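Saturday, quiet lab. Running sequence design on the structure tokens for the scaffold JK sent over.
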């Protein structure tokens, strides 16, 4: 379709609850392959993601969960504004090709606050543009039928070939997807089931084998064992092959069968609109147009029916849920949208923005009778007048429809406006057209797709001690009945079980069921241990399915090296978000420190007693092998003592040397007062106790000391020879000789 969103951002701020239309906080999408074409300007680029916030700023993260090569993006979207993210450089990682293979191309978009999201192909030639409106969680389901037009071929001149395709992305692991194609594909024949197994974020593309309109895959049945999102694409559709400058890419993200209805209103975008495609989901479906008694019977599920659009608005009613694909046309330009049913859907307020280079813009509106007089445009009456509305044929006046053009004066280029209705809900389509080479045409249908579907979300697993709030809010006037008997719009759950809710608003009823399980996770950690001061140990944590560990020290990972006493707590985060906690303790034992003293010299017959610390009565080991508190040492060598306390070991050693230790006795002294060699000094290796006696040359004793202190300086004697007798009282040795006194 030659359509670009051109900064058109429609924000649903109505009453219908958290899953409003395309606004959501979670989106899954798979981008189809678009031909790059044979023109000088590429047909498949640039590509953008566009995000629009509602009343609150939102932080948006874009990732490919199954593709490690795709670097995630984080985008800040201010309140009530739109932001684009150019992904052209990632095109090889985005487009779901080659076909027929399991790929890792699924996009996951998460937002901190509700946003709208679109994937946009802006061809450089402005001739093969497309906007895929992402439908959030409303797009997820387990059964789909693919609607395709069967009037126009795909252009034959492109490389790679332009084809129609169905692209699927899995949102959970172990998802089995089965296709039953209505026409031959590049991997199989018509009606031959194709089954693939996809993990979370993995994708698969089913491509038509031919390019003719009859070769399109309309009515193909898609089923899955877990929720998936589905994209349909019809590439380079040749609307008027001989009179138009370019062909048009068309496509959309599908709704699952569970979101469909049996009554639709189609409002023509221009007089050239000629076609809507109906696809049945149940055999024997009867289709009536504009209340006619002449019904069309669709005998099998997946059968298609082309509805001619002969009136400004068309009522389509069916006996079972159907898909309705509206083909909007303006000249050579084609656009399409998968329409929501009118019953139990709608919005009270929609924000729109006019593109900067849009030549014309028009709104299509559907509202229950009585609401046509209550429209406001930026709070003003009259821009959307009641006179613009007319009864939808065959609805007995129940539904009214209008096409309202907006001039540049009413909505300038780049400006945003709010369309609201104070009385009732409405459906809104926005059509924007740019003229020029090939031109472009945008048909974006934004409505509360979940208007009366209640969605409790997927089955949940609670962590022990946690609670979960199930929400079924469905707007004013809704009544709730839970399986527990509660009648509020929310239900607090703390116990495992199966919970259902039934919601009724007027004639609309919706139910949903969710299963809740409770998990009690555990984490194992190294038992309490004791450490010796100065040593370290590694604490180890282990938990099944753990994806992260954090210790109370701030460290992460399953192992923690410790060297200090204390209590250590680890929190393990398990797959699914549950956490488990465990603690252990570490005590420190002081080392039994002591000293054997400095290295020692033994002289002659000396012995040395080495003694253990007084408190050491056990755990002793000497280098000699003794375990006694003391040992006597006679021989030189290295001696050590090792003490062990509470597993902690400390050792000290001493080196013992042995020498003869002969004293050095002078043979001359000069006690002349010059401070040198003044006294008779006996020098020895130790401070032994000496007894000294001194005699003159006639044998008379002139000095005696029983505890000599190296202090005899020939006091009262003159110069001459003297004789000494020195006794080592410690060792029992005697030394005798002479000493000459000079300088007196």
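Result came back. Writing it out in full:
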């Amino acid at each position: 379709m030659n359509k670009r969103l051109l900064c058109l951002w429609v924000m649903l701020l109505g009453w219908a609850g958290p899953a409003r239309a395309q606004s959501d906080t979670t989106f899954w999408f798979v981008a189809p392959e678009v031909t790059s074409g044979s023109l000088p300007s590429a047909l498949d680029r640039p590509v953008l993601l566009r995000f629009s916030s509602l009343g609150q700023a939102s932080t948006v993260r874009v990732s490919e969960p199954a593709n490690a090569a795709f670097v995630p993006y984080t985008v800040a979207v201010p309140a009530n504004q739109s932001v684009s993210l150019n992904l052209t450089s990632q095109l090889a990682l985005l487009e779901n090709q080659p076909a027929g293979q399991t790929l890792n191309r699924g996009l996951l978009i998460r937002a901190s606050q509700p946003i709208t999201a679109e994937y946009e192909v802006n061809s450089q030639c402005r001739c093969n543009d497309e906007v895929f409106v992402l439908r959030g969680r409303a797009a997820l389901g387990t059964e789909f039928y693919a609607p395709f037009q069967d009037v126009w071929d795909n252009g034959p001149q492109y490389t790679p070939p332009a084809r129609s395709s169905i692209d699927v992305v899995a949102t959970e692991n172990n998802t089995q997807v089965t296709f039953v194609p209505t026409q031959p594909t590049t991997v199989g024949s018509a009606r031959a089931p194709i089954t693939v197994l996809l993990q979370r974020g993995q994708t698969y593309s089913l491509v038509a084998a031919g390019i003719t309109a009859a070769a399109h895959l309309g009515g193909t049945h898609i089923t899955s064992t877990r929720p998936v999102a589905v994209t349909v694409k019809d590439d380079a559709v040749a609307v008027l092959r001989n009179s138009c400058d370019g062909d048009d890419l068309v496509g959309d993200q599908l709704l699952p069968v569970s979101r469909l209805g049996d009554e639709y209103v189609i409002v023509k975008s221009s007089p050239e609109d000629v076609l809507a495609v109906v696809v049945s989901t149940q055999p024997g479906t009867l289709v009536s147009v504009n209340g006619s008694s002449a019904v069309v019977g669709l005998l099998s599920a997946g059968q298609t029916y082309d509805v001619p659009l002969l009136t400004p608005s068309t009522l389509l009613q069916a006996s079972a849920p159907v898909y309705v694909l509206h083909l909007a046309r303006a000249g050579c330009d084609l656009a399409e949208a998968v329409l929501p049913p009118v019953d139990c859907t709608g919005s009270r307020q929609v924000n729109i923005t006019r593109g900067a280079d849009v030549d014309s813009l028009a709104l299509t509106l559907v509202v229950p009778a009585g609401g046509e007089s209550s429209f406001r445009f930026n709070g003003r009456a009259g821009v959307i007048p009641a006179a613009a509305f007319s009864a939808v044929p065959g609805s007995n006046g129940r539904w009214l429809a209008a096409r309202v053009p907006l001039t540049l004066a009413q909505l300038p280029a780049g400006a945003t406006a709010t369309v609201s209705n104070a009385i009732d809900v409405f459906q809104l389509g926005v059509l924007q057209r740019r003229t020029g080479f090939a031109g472009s045409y945008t048909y974006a249908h934004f409505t509360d797709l979940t208007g009366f579907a209640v969605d409790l979300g997927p089955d949940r697993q609670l962590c022990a001690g946690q609670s979960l709030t199930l929400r079924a809010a469905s707007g004013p006037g809704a009544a709730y009945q839970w399986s527990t008997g509660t009648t509020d719009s929310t239900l607090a759950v703390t116990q495992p079980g199966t919970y259902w809710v039934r919601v009724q608003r007027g004639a609309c009823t919706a139910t949903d069921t969710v299963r809740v399980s409770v998990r009690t996770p555990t984490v194992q950690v190294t038992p309490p241990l004791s450490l010796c001061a100065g040593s370290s140990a590694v604490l180890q944590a282990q938990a099944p399915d753990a994806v992260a560990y954090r210790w109370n020290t701030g460290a992460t990972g399953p192992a923690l090296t410790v060297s200090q006493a204390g209590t250590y707590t680890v929190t393990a985060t398990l797959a699914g978000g549950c956490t488990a906690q465990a603690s252990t303790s570490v005590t420190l034992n002081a080392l039994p420190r002591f000293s054997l003293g400095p290295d020692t010299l033994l002289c002659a017959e000396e012995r040395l007693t080495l003694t253990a610390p007084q408190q050491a009565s056990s755990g002793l080991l000497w280098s000699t092998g003794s375990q006694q508190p003391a040992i006597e040492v006679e021989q030189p060598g290295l001696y050590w003592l090792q003490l062990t306390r509470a597993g902690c070991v400390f050792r000290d050693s001493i080196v013992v040397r042995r020498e003869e230790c002969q004293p050095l006795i002078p043979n001359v002294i000069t006690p002349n007062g010059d401070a040198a060699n003044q006294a008779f000094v006996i020098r020895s290796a130790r401070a032994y106790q000496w007894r000294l006696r001194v005699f003159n040359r006639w044998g008379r004793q002139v000095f005696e000391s029983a505890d000599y202190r190296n202090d005899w300086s020939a006091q009262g004697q003159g110069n001459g020879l003297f004789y000494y007798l020195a006794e080592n009282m410690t060792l029992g040795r005697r030394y005798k000789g002479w000493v000459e006194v000079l300088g007196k």
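Notes for JK: The first strand starts at residue 11 and ends at 12. The first helix runs from residue 91 to 94. Ask whether to fix the surface positions before the next round.
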